[in-house]
C-alpha cells in the first residue's frame, strides 16, 4: 500500500487534467476583429452584443435576451424589473453561491432561506411553500451545479400564490428540464459568464424572459435607464451594467462550442459518478438522475463524503489528501448562505437582514460536500475515462490508508496545539 502524497508519498497523478475555461483560434480572431473595429462597447445595432443576444435567444428558444456585465448584475436587474421594494422578501435556497442572496440584499430586499432537497441540492418545493409570507415578492430557483431545480413543483407553488420565479442559471447554461432550457421555465432567467461557468469571457451575464412587458425594462436597467434604441430622456432609474464587445465576441465563440463540451462532460460525469459510488462513504449527487432532467448542465460533479466510513478522517483532510494526490477539488469551506457573516452576525457593520425558514439539509450537505470540475476551477470532466480513473484511484488510496491518515491527523493536531500550551 503506497504512502499518501499528503504525508510525503508519490502522488497518484502528476499530469494535469483539462483546463477551464477552454479557447482556440476562434476567440483570438474574434478579439482581434473587435479591436480593429474600434467599437469596443456600448449598445449598438449590428454589434457583437446584439449578435450574441440573438444567438442565445435562438439556442434557448426565448424571445428576449439582454447581455449584462455579470450574473449578480443580472439578478439585481431581474429583481428590480419585477418591482422589488426595500423590505420585500425573496425566497432563496439556503445552499447556493452567496450572490443569489446578496443581489436581494443590495436592493434592500430580505432573502428568506428555504431548504434544499439533499438528493439534488436544489430548492425544495415543500420548504419554499412554508417560506412564503404576504411580503414575498419573488422566488429564486438555483440550478446548482447544472442540475435543474424541480420546476414542476416550484411553478405550481408560484402559480398558486401568483409569485414570479427568477431562475438563477449561473451554473446551468445548456441544462434542460422536460426538454426546455433552464432560464425559460420561470418569469426571468439569469446566466453568468464568469471564469468557471459553462461559457465564459472572464465576466459577463445575460437576462432572458418570455415576457414582452419586462423585456424593455430589463434592457433599460442595464443601460442608464435608456429604453433600447433611444437616447435621452431617461424614464427609468438605471445602472451601467453593460457587457463589452470583447466579451460578447468571446462568448459567441464559446457558445458555438458549448454543446460539444456539455456532451463530453456528461460522459465524464457519468463515468466518475459510477466509479466513485463503489467506494464506501462516497455518494454521487444525485444518486440517480430524475428522468425529467433531460440535460444536466455539468458545471460540476458533486459527491458527499461520510467520515464514518473513513475512520472519522475530517472532510477537510480528505479534500487535502485528494489535492495532494493530484486531483483538483474545491478548497474553500462550504457553509450555508444563512451562516454567512453578513446574515448571521448582527454585529457585522455590513449585516443585512434575512429570515431563515429552514436550512437543516443545506447545513448537513455543506459539511459533507466535495466538488469536482468547474466548481474547482478544473475542466476535468472533459477528460477521457482512462484519465478520470485516477480520481477513483486516489480516493481508493485514501480509503485504504484511512486509519493511518486518522493517526497522522491526530498527531498533527497535537503538535499544532502544543506550542500554545
Ligand atoms: C456565479 C454565480 C452567481 C454570480 O454570477 P457572477 O457573474 O459571478 O456575478 C450567482 N449565482 C450562482 C449560483 C453562481 O454560481
UniProtKB/TrEMBL annotation:
**Record SUPFAM superfamilies:** PLP-dependent transferases
List the transmembrane segments: none
Region: Disordered; residue ranges are: 400-421
Query: Where are the coiled-coil regions?
Result: none
Q: Which cofactor does it need?
A: pyridoxal 5'-phosphate
Ranges annotated as biased composition (Basic and acidic residues): 404-415
Pfam short name (any one): DegT_DnrJ_EryC1
> What's in the keyword line of the UniProt record?
Pyridoxal phosphate
Q: Give the family, as the similarity comment puts it.
A: Belongs to the DegT/DnrJ/EryC1 family.
**Name by which UniProt lists this protein:** dTDP-4-amino-4,6-dideoxygalactose transaminase
Origin organism lineage:
Bacteria, Bacillati, Actinomycetota, Actinomycetes, Streptosporangiales
